[in-house]
Amino acid sequence: KFFETWKPEYNAHQETKGNCDSAGGAWSIWSDWSLCSSSCGNDGIQKRYRKCFSDQCLIEFDVDIKTCNRQRCPVQADYYTTLWKCYYWPPVHGQWSNWSTVNETFQNETTCPGKLSFATRQCDSPTPEYCGMYCGSSSIKIDIFPVDGGWSSWSGFSSCTLSCGSGTQYRTRACDNPASQYGGKHCEGYEREEKSCNTNPCPVDGGWSSWSGFSSCTLSCGSGTQYRTRACDNPASQYGGKHCEGYEREEKSCNINPCSAWSSWSCKHCSKTAIRTRTCHHGCPSKTTETKEMCQIESSCFPDKVISYNTGLWGSWRSWEYCPKGTWVVKLQTNIESHQGDGDDTALNAISLRCNDDVGATIKSGSTNWGTWQAESQKCINGFYGGMLKFESSQGSDDDDTSTNAIRLICRDDNQWYRSGEGGWGSWTQSTYCPAGYKIVGLQTQIESDQGSDDDTSLNGVRLLCRYFG
């Protein structure tokens, strides 16, 4: 009876503290039981093992222990001595020795980078005696060394968020080469990288300014007209944006009250050879409706007016050219040099204006060696009375100053802007008009000659001559 209670029987599942379940692992089947450590008596034990794998990587080790062969041993000479010692001496319980560690790499470094620490210990410090207890818990432990994360390669950059005006695009990478495991450090740095793209300015459509005040009435009686203007500069169109829709000039009737019998003289200050006239509206003597007389004052009734666009910094003014007497400009044609893709883009190089005489005379006031003559504008039968230029200011370098790039003229027929070819740079100047009753008849241009180097700005300034036709 004493022998049966000497050391209790046990069946201990000595499970490690690891991460099998939390790491998504799976246990292997148990190994076979080892041979019993003793053939009889009270000290025999058996062990079996199993392993935990996650994605084919070993991450856990488990031990199961049980007692075995607990039958009496054959009686030996010291048997009763042993029983006597167990009865009279205090039991010596077993204690574990220190862990004996051997580092081993159990898995493929490519797919399972974690290194395992495999350690064992023995129940011999001291060994159990005099009915003492065997050591508890496990004689084997496994620790997995931390795995620091590593970056994957960068992905390609995404599409730009904007087509113009400075958008962004990004690329990404993942901390999975390898992923951090078992308490290892996460990758240092950023998972996302951005850069600017499509930094070219977006097109800006033109917008109208406020209307100006109305001009003075053209007549003091008998229904005259007065006009007001506005400019496409709020903002001006840029970077390929649309020009304003609608009219820059608006007219209305004024002084519609009937005139007295005789109107005022048509001009008050005339040259010696000019004639002034007045018209009878009612109560005319001898059915005369108009009278004429020679002017006596040495000055013009309606002197010519000049519209000047002194926009450029370079070149010299060429000679004035005029339509034949009594005629005016009815068509516009431009000489344009296309984009050269390098240091020189002269754009507008010359202007040709066609007159409405019998032979269709043209006036140019100078030209250059570059560019191609574009198609003429449609015909403005009643003549042009104003214009505006597209102008690029100095770019501050030696390579390129395109200066004047395009011109448009406004027609009396329909108050529409007529044009020929146009260059691609610069902004439109504010439109300028002849006085009421005037039409464009002359042209003077400012042209820079060939510089023999990287920059030929060509046409820089334009002056238009307005003449009164009533």
UniProtKB/TrEMBL annotation:
What coarse category fits the chief subcellular location reported for this protein? membrane
What is a single cellular component term in the Gene Ontology annotation?
membrane
Pfam families for this protein = TSP1_CFP_C, TSP_1, VOMI
- Annotated compartments: Membrane
Keywords per UniProt: Disulfide bond, Membrane, Repeat, Transmembrane, Transmembrane helix
Q: How does it sit in the membrane?
A: Single-pass membrane protein
Q: What is this protein called?
A: Hemicentin-1
- Organism of provenance: Clytia hemisphaerica
